[in-house]
């Protein structure tokens, strides 16, 4: 799926003023002014798309387009309000080891002798 960029109404108006020869269909395209600014807007947006996830609309339908735009708006709100810091590299290795059921011995071919693996996992190297 291609990433969609959200453009403000003001940007569209500016573009159309500078490019009066732009495709007439794009000039008449429906412009969504849904913006998620508050936690209440966010909660309402989540409720609005919940039913669409349960009963997924077909691609190309207005319902699908609405869902896609709402998901992008929700993602943008979440990225701004609830950023996720990257994990500590050592903790990420330990987590992956636990997930995969790996032991220190399993890391030796990639890292080296057992003591070297322990040095890395203990933050000494």
UniProtKB/TrEMBL annotation:
<protein>
    <submittedName>
        <fullName>Putative transcription regulator</fullName>
    </submittedName>
</protein>
<dbReference type="GO" id="GO:0001046">
    <property type="term" value="F:core promoter sequence-specific DNA binding"/>
</dbReference>
<dbReference type="GO" id="GO:0006355">
    <property type="term" value="P:regulation of DNA-templated transcription"/>
</dbReference>
<dbReference type="InterPro" id="IPR039060">
    <property type="entry name" value="Antitox_HigA"/>
</dbReference>
